[in-house]
Design a protein that fits this description.
heterodimer, A: about 400 residues, alpha/beta, B: about 50 residues, mainly beta, three-stranded antiparallel β-sheet
Chain lengths: ~400, ~50
C-alpha cells in the first residue's frame, strides 16, 4: 500500500499508482501511470484533484493516513478528465456535498456533464486567489492544455505549482521525484508531450511566455501524473519550450507497413539512402510499433516518409490508424514523401500525399509506387528518394540556421 | 457586433478578430472564412453559440 509522502511542510502527495495500465485511451503506457492528488493541511484542509474512480477506496485510505477525510474543507479541481475527477462524487458524499469545489468556468460545466448533477462549484479564473490562513492559492487558467477546463493552482508561499496534466509523465515506480530518477524520466515526459500536448504547442508557447512575465518563483512542479519536479523544475519547463517550438532536427522517421514485404524492401532501401547522407533515421513498422511511440519519434524529426501497400483501393488500415492519429496531433515544420507497393490499382501513394497536404507538410517528391515486387532499379530509386529526403532536410536546416 | 462562444470556452469577439489566423478586427462571425476554426481547440464554426 502506498504511503502518502510529505512533499513540503503540511503538504502531502496522496494519489494512487496504477502499475497495471498498459493502454491509456490508445496511448501505450509500458510502465503504468500514477494519478497524483495533493492534500494541504492548514486552517482549512484543501485537496487538489482526485484519482480514477477505480482507485477511490485506496485514495480515501491514503488520505485517512493523514486526516479524517471528513475534515477536508475544500476541493480544488484543476482538471475534470476522469482520471482526476472520477472519485469526486464518492469523495463529496463522504466529506459533505455542500463543501466548495474550486474550478474554472469550463470545469464547472464539464463536471456537470460528467456527473449529471450540480455541486457547490466556486468558479475561479486567472489571477483569482483563495487565501486560507497563511497560504495563498493563485489560479491560472490553462484552457486547452489540454482540455477546456484545465487550470493550474499556484501555492504562493511554498512556490509550488500544481500543474494538472502539464509536465506530467505516464510513469509508475518506486521513485517519486526528479532527483530520485534522474534523466531517465525525460523520455516519458517527451512521450507525454508528443501524445497529449503537441497539437496545442502554440498555447504552450503563450503560456510559457505568460509565466515568464509573471516572474513566478517555482520551487516545485507537481503534475497529476508521474514524478514531481522538485530538484530542477526549470528542466521540464525548458524541455516544454523546446518541444513546443517544433524545431526540426536532422532526423527522418520512416513509417511503413507491408503485406508481402515489397513495401518493406522499399522502406529499407529508403532508409539506407537516408543513412548514406549521415542523417539519423528511425524505421518503424506500424504493426511492430505503437502509434504513440511513432508519434514520440516524430516530434523532433525534420522529415517523415510513409509507405503503405494499396489494399482494397485504399491505404493499409494500420497506416490509416497511424496517419489519423499523427494528423490530429498536428506536427509542424516537416518535409514528407510517400511510397508503397501495389498489385493493380495503386492508390496508396496518392492518398498519402493528400494526407500530407492536409497536414500542411512539405511534400518534396511525388513518391514512388512499385507494382508487386520491387526489382533492383526500383530499389535504387527508393535509395535515391532516401538521399533526396536527407539532402533536402539538410539544406532546409542549413538555410534556417543561416536565416 | 455579436460575440460567439466555442464549446471549449473561447469567445470570438468581432472587435478583436483573429489576426493570428488572418481575420481582421471588425469581422463579424457570419463573415468569417468558411475554413476558419476555433484558434484554441480547432472546432468548426457550428460548435459556436451566440452570447447573450
Amino acid at each position: 500500500m502506498y504511503k502518502p509522502i510529505e512533499i513540503a511542510d503540511g503538504i502531502y502527495s496522496v494519489g494512487c499508482r496504477d502499475w497495471d495500465i498498459r493502454d491509456f485511451h490508445g496511448y501505450s503506457t509500458y510502465e503504468g501511470t500514477t494519478y497524483n492528488a495533493f492534500l494541504i493541511l492548514g486552517e482549512k484542509n484543501i485537496l487538489i484533484d482526485t484519482v480514477k474512480e477505480k482507485f477511490s477506496d485506496e485514495f480515501i485510505s491514503n488520505i485517512s493516513k493523514i486526516i479524517d477525510p471528513k475534515d477536508i474543507d475544500i476541493l480544488i479541481s484543476n482538471h475534470t478528465e476522469m482520471d482526476h475527477s472520477g472519485t469526486i462524487p464518492k469523495l463529496m458524499q463522504l466529506i459533505g456535498e455542500e463543501k466548495p469545489i474550486y474550478c474554472s468556468k469550463m470545469g464547472a460545466k464539464n463536471m456537470k456533464s460528467h456527473f449529471n448533477r450540480d455541486f457547490n462549484f466556486q468558479v475561479v479564473g486567472s489571477g483569482d486567489e483563495l487565501k486560507i490562513g497563511n497560504r495563498t492559492f493563485s489560479f491560472l487558467e490553462t484552457r486547452m492544455l489540454h482540455w477546456p477546463d484545465s487550470m493550474f493552482t499556484y501555492l504562493v508561499e511554498d512556490a509550488i505549482l500544481f500543474s494538472s496534466d502539464a509536465f506530467g509523465q505516464h510513469y509508475c515506480g518506486d521513485k517519486f521525484f526528479d532527483d530520485e530518477i534522474g534523466d531517465e524520466i525525460l523520455p516519458h515526459a517527451r512521450k507525454y508531450y508528443a501524445n497529449i500536448l503537441l497539437h496545442f504547442s502554440p498555447r504552450v508557447q503563450a503560456l510559457l511566455k505568460d509565466v515568464e512575465k509573471m516572474n513566478l518563483k517555482i520551487n516545485m512542479i507537481c503534475p497529476d501524473h508521474g514524478i514531481l519536479w522538485r530538484d530542477n523544475p526549470s528542466k521540464i519547463i525548458e524541455a516544454y519550450d523546446k518541444w513546443s517550438k517544433q524545431e526540426p532536427e536532422k532526423k527522418v522517421v520512416v513509417i511503413f507497413d507491408s503485406m508481402w514485404d515489397s513495401t518493406t524492401k522499399m522502406a529499407r532501401s529508403i532508409t539506407s539512402g537516408i543513412e548514406s547522407e549521415d542523417v539519423a533515421v528511425r524505421l518503424m513498422n506500424t504493426r511492430k510499433w505503437h502509434r504513440s511511440d511513432i508519434m514520440t519519434e516524430i516530434i523532433d524529426a525534420g522529415a517523415i516518409v510513409v509507405g503503405s501497400p494499396t489494399l482494397n483501393n485504399s491505404i493499409f488500415p494500420v497506416i490509416a490508424d497511424v496517419m489519423t492519429y499523427v494528423k490530429g496531433l498536428r506536427p509542424q515544420n516537416k518535409i514528407a514523401a510517400a511510397f508503397g507497393s501495389y498489385g493493380w490499382s495503386g492508390e496508396a501513394v496518392k492518398i498519402l500525399n493528400k494526407e500530407f497536404s492536409e497536414m500542411k507538410l512539405d511534400i518534396i517528391d511525388d513518391g514512388i509506387k512499385v507494382q508487386y515486387v520491387p526489382d533492383d532499379d526500383d530499389l535504387n530509386r527508393c535509395f535515391d528518394l532516401g538521399v533526396k529526403v536527407a539532402k533536402t532536410l539538410k539544406q532546409r536546416l542549413s538555410d534556417t540556421n543561416k536565416g | 457586433m455579436e460575440k460567439y462562444e466555442c464549446v471549449c470556452g473561447y469567445v470570438y469577439d468581432p472587435a478583436d478578430g483573429d489576426p493570428d489566423n488572418g481575420v481582421e478586427p471588425g469581422t463579424s462571425f457570419a463573415d468569417l472564412p468558411e475554413e476558419w476554426v476555433c484558434p484554441l481547440c480547432g472546432a468548426t464554426q457550428d460548435n459556436f453559440t451566440k452570447l447573450d
